[in-house]
Each structure stands twice: as C-alpha cells, then as structure tokens.
C-alpha cells in the first residue's frame, strides 16, 4: 500500500497556497488520527499544537498534544497565572493518546506550556509545545501562541526554482548569530530583518547561488549552534519573529538566491521543557540508553520505529518546505542515524532483528522522508551529511538508495585538507591523496564542503592550515579554492573563508570584516567572486558535475613537480575548460600540457594575478596550441605555471 495515498497528496498540493483563516480551526479528524498512528501524516503541524481559532463566534486558541501515558494534561500560561487547575485538557477516547481543548480569549503572543502528570509514576512537568510555531526568547522556555500569516513576494522564484543537477550550485554557509554584529549595541547579532538586505546584497555580489543556514530551529543552548533542537516547528526567537525569518527568506529569493535549512532529525537535547521523557515515559526516544542516548552529543535519539515519532519528524521537514519556502534541507548527522553502533563500543548497542548494525527503522524513515519531500516540492534538494561509505545515499529509493538528491563529499574534504596542510616539500610523497578522490567522485551526487566543522574546536581557520609565510598561505588558499571550483561536484564554503579570516570561528563574535582593508584578504575575496562568476558562466564547470563524461585527466602522474592537469567538459562537444594546478611554491616555465584541440587557449582565471594578491606571473592572457604531441594528444601548450597557482584556460571560438 502506498504510505501516502494519492488523494492525500493531491489535497495538500491544492491547499498549499490557500490563505488560512483564523476561524477555520484545525480539528483532528479520524483520518488524521489514522495517518498519525500509521506514521504517514506529513502535515501534523496543521492539526496538533496551538492554533488561533474561533468557536461559536468566540475567538481563542485550540490546543492538541500527544501524551498517551499522561493521567492529566492542562494548559498553563501567562493568561491563567500558570495555574494547572484552570484549563484542563480532554483526552480523546480513541487510543490516539491525544489531548485537546479550546481556550476562549487566548490570542497571539500568549505564553503557554503543557502541565503533564504521568499516570505511570506521578511524574509532573511543564513541557513546551512540540508543535509550537514560536517560542519565548531564551533563556525563557515557554511556547508562544502565534500565526504564520505572511504575504510572500517570491512567486517568480518559487515557480522557477527547479534546480536540475546540471545547474551551478555554490553555497554560502551562514551562522546567523555571528555573520555580522552591531558593535555600538554591545555586539548584538543582527535580527532576521536587519540581515535580509545586507546578506542578500553580499551573496549576490559574491556570486553564490544559495545560502545554507545553520539550524534556525529553537534551541536552548546558543553554543550548540542550533544542533540541539527543542522547537522543531519554531524558528529561534533570538533574531525575531517567524514573519521576520520569512522576510529574510523572501528577500533572498527576490535576489535569486536559494535558501537551504540545516535540519537535525538525528538527536535532541534532554532539557526538561523539551521532548525528552515527555509524558513520564520515553515517548520520542528509546528507553534503553543503548538505543536512545547519544554518547558523543549527550543527547537523546529519536525512536524511528514509533509511527507517531516518524510522523512528527516528517511533518517538521515538510513544515519548513511548506511554510518557510525552504529550497532544501541539509540533514545533519545521517551516519549516526544509519548505524546502531555509531559512536559506541562493543556491547554498548543492540543489533537489529537480523543481527546487523544497520538501523532499519531509521533507513525506512529517511526513504519515506525523501519521497515525501520530492513529491510535494520537486524543485528542492534533500542533502545528506553522511560521512561513511554507505552506498547509494543520493540514489532513488526505487533503485535501492536512500533517496537524497545530494551528499556532502566528506572524503574529498578530509583528503584535500590533509594534503594542503603538508609542507609543499613533502607533497610529492602524498600525490595520491590529492588525486584518489576522482576515482569515486561519481559514485554519489556530491557537494564539496569546506564547512563550519573545519574551522572550530581547535582546528584553526582555512588560511591557518596553509603552510609557509603569509604570501604562501594566501596563494595556497587561492589554489585550494581554484582546485575545488574546478573539481567535479557542487560547492559549499563557510562564511569568513571567502576572505581568509585569521581567527577560528567564534559563535559569539562577528566575522573579522575589518581584515578586508588588507590587500591579501581583499584579493582572496575577489578571487572567490571571480571563481563563482566562471563557475556559473561556463557550462563545462557545472553541467556534468555528477557524470564521468564531464571530467578527463590530462596528467595526474607528475608527482615529482606536484602538478595536475585535467579537463572539465560540458554537454556540447568541444566545450572544455582546462585546469592546471601547481601545488609547490616553485615557478615552472615551459611546462608542457597536452590539449585536445589546436587554436588559442585563453586564460579565464589565474590565481597569481595581482588583483588577487599574486605576483602577476602567467601567460600574457593565453597560449597558442602547438602541433606537438603530449599526454596522448596531438596538440600541447607550453605554459608558465606560477607558484602555488591554478590556471583555468578555454579554447577561443568555443
């Protein structure tokens, strides 16, 4: 049986842009209960939680919460003095475990929680609403009555946003709280609305196609960067209201910039007001710590085998796509979901029914998630942060894959950074570390990530990983970016990396924008800008990112000089870009590179140009191919390879 009946999907699609009137209070129907208990309800946020409503001509709010093991549940808030006896909820007598009530006079902005008394152990606790649309600003922990009315202006973007795999995708990863701050006001972070115009203008100028936001969902501990979520349907109130976040996304869309949300279905914190031990039992998580506790992150693990939990997470994912017009979800820590023994020693985990270490329930959930997301929003991308060799992560579910559209290429990132961190004198002994990745570059639909994870926890900055003096460090980083942008795969760069921030990322401080007054930092920023321009403008650099036909080695054997050369190819025959990379601080004159055609090969980009902070060495704008055979080709170029540089060349007339 199709877990998502056709008539359900059709109804949802028809209602997607229909205005929701306050008096049309969401009522939990028998069909909703059936889909909820089946684990296939994809839009529980329309039914559970708190909704402004009108009953018999009286305005107020309806409440619905899942607490099957509760003896008593009541709504407490600033409207009743937080009195647990004032507004008890009614338990549905259908085995669903749902509690409901309607409270007249409770309007937008009211603070509330659910006071739960467990029937199993007398446990009493005040819980935030798992489906709340808004929350009290931390350190407060109450939920807030809210509506999601907003007049979107991104209709053109939404109707045309379908991003095929042959389109360019260069992602700028952003932590909202530290991108820019206001020093005159105690270095407070910019709010959603304050950030909208400057972020959109900056990303447009830099040429990135997308912004990826570190988790914006409400989280109690700021230092978790949003990866310990308590509000799976609420943007953090630290930066404004839900409508303020919508304004930010709307503004980015109007500038032609896609928005990807970082989403965390792998674990959640144990804070008392959150999901953990919700009704006096381990409702959302496994009770056995060998399944339900994450030792690395000191957090709880969702019970993906419980249908209601699966529906909760499925609805959360669809919520950000539906109501916030997200263009994709980057699913965090997928590896931790796939393996029962992830981060555990022998004897600290429970095998699956077949004795294996694969989490069968999580696998089924991920497939169902991706099927639903792409069915409801074909123009989006589901992206996996998956760090193992699990096969077919970005392949369709009907072919046995997990159904993601893209996967972070963690292996490429680790190998490449390890290579670049080595003194150039020793790089020739590690040449294979640089070139090995291409042999499996097309096994998945990869994004090449230089993310926030590489510039925290004592890892230093990207510029700090480069060996040598200051000039060599910047030349090395320009080379890294040039090699990355020329390599098959979509691109992702964490904020600050584009101008060579010196200080390791600090989530409580602004980026070091002041360093742009120095030529090397400003030159690096200009280099990234021009790389994006070339990447977006040259089909050969992006059309066949996921196909072996889009890449061809010229020479990857010159380990002695630490030089590689390769072609990127487009769909049209002869539409080639030649990349030549010199990974040493030594200039190579008269360096021969075989090419597939004669004619004049123009330098598109040279990372050693003076405008980027280089020394201005190069090939005077281009080179005429000579009829001299090299590297198995009938023509070749005699090039000057500047130190620590990458050259991109294109044959004229193509």
Supply the key terms.
elongated; alpha/beta; TIM Barrel; 31 strands; 14 helices; 2 domains; Immunoglobulin-like; 654 residues
Write a structural description:
- With 654 residues, the chain is of the alpha/beta class.
- It has two domains: 1-387 and 397-408, Alpha-Beta Barrel (TIM Barrel), CATH 3.20.20.80; 548-651, Golgi alpha-mannosidase II (Immunoglobulin-like, Sandwich).
- 23% of the residues lie in helices and 23% in strands.
- It has 14 helices and 31 strands.
- The strands form eight sheets. An eight-stranded parallel beta barrel has the order 10-13-16-19-20-21-22-23, surrounded by four helices. The protein has a six-stranded antiparallel beta sheet with strand order 24-25-26-31-28-29.
- The relative contact order is 0.08.
- Residues 1-25 have low confidence and may be disordered.
Assign an overall shape. Answer: elongated
CATH superfamily assignment of the largest domain? Answer: Glycosidases
The end-to-end span amounts to 52 Å
Determine the strand fraction and express it as a percent band.
15-25%
The mean pLDDT is 94
CA radius of gyration is 27 Å
Helix content: 10-25%
CATH topology of the largest domain: TIM Barrel
């Amino acid at each position: 049986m199709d877990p998502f009946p056709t008539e359900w999907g059709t109804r949802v699609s028809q209602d997607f842009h229909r205005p929701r009137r306050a008096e049309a209070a969401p009522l939990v129907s028998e069909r909703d209960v059936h889909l909820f208990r089946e684990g296939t309800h994809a839009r529980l946020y329309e039914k559970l939680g708190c909704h402004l409503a009108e009953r018999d001509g009286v305005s107020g709010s309806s409440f619905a919460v899942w607490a099957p093991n509760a003896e008593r549940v009541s709504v407490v808030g600033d409207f009743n003095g937080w009195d647990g006896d004032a507004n008890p909820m009614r338990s549905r007598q259908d085995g669903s475990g749902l509690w409901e009530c309607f409270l007249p006079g409770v309007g937008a902005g009211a603070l509330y929680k659910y006071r739960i008394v467990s029937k199993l152990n007398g446990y009493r606790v005040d819980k935030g609403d798992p489906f709340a649309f808004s929350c009290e600003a931390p350190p407060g922990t109450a939920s807030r009555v809210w509506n999601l009315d907003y007049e979107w202006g991104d209709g053109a973007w939404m109707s045309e946003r379908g991003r095929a795999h042959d389109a360019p995708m260069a992602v700028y990863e952003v932590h909202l709280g530290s991108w820019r701050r206001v020093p005159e006001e105690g270095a407070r972070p910019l709010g959603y609305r304050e950030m909208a115009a400057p972020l959109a203008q900056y990303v447009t100028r830099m040429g990135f196609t997308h912004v990826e936001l570190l988790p914006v969902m409400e989280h109690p501990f700021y230092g978790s960067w949003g990866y310990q979520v308590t509000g799976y349907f609420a943007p953090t109130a630290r930066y404004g209201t839900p409508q303020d976040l919508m304004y930010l996304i709307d503004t980015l869309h109007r500038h032609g910039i896609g928005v990807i949300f970082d989403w965390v279905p792998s674990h959640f914190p144990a804070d008392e007001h959150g999901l953990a031990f919700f009704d006096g039992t381990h409702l959302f998580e496994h009770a056995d710590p060998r399944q339900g506790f994450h030792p690395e992150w000191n957090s709880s693990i969702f019970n993906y085998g419980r249908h209601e939990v699966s529906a909760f997470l499925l609805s959360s994912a669809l919520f950000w796509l539906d109501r916030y017009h997200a263009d994709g979800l980057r699913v965090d820590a997928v590896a931790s979901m796939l393996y029962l023994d992830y981060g555990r020693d022998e004897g600290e985990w429970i095998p699956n029914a077949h004795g294996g270490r694969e989490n069968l329930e999580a696998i089924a959930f991920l497939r169902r998630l991706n099927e639903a997301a792409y069915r409801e929003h074909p123009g989006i991308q589901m992206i996996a942060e998956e760090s193992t060799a699990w096969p077919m992560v970005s392949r369709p579910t009907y072919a046995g894959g997990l159904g993601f559209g893209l996967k972070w290429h963690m292996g490429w990132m680790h190998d490449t950074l390890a290579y670049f961190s080595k003194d150039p004198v020793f790089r020739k002994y590690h040449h294979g570390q640089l070139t090995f990745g291409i042999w499996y570059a097309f096994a998945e639909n990869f994004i090449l990530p230089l993310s926030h994870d590489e510039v925290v926890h004592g890892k230093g900055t990207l510029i700090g990983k480069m060996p040598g003096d200051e000039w060599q460090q910047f030349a090395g980083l320009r080379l890294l970016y040039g090699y990355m942008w020329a390599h098959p795969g979509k691109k992702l760069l964490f904020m600050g990396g584009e101008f060579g921030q010196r200080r390791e990322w600090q989530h409580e401080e602004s980026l070091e924008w002041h360093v742009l007054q120095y030529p090397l930092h400003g030159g690096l920023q200009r280099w990234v800008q021009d790389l994006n321009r070339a990447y977006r403008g040259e089909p050969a650099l992006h059309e066949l990112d996921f196909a072996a036909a889009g890449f061809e080695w010229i020479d990857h054997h010159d380990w002695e000089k630490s030089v590689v050369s390769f072609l990127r190819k487009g769909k049209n025959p002869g539409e080639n870009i030649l990349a030549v990379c010199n990974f040493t601080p030594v200039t190579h004159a008269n360096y021969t590179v075989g090419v597939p055609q004669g004619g004049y090969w123009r330098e598109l980009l040279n990372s050693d140009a003076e405008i980027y902070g280089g020394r201005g060495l190069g090939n005077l704008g281009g080179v005429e191919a000579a009829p001299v055979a090299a590297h198995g080709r009938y023509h070749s170029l005699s090039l000057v390879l500047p130190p620590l540089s990458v050259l991109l060349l294109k044959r004229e007339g193509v």
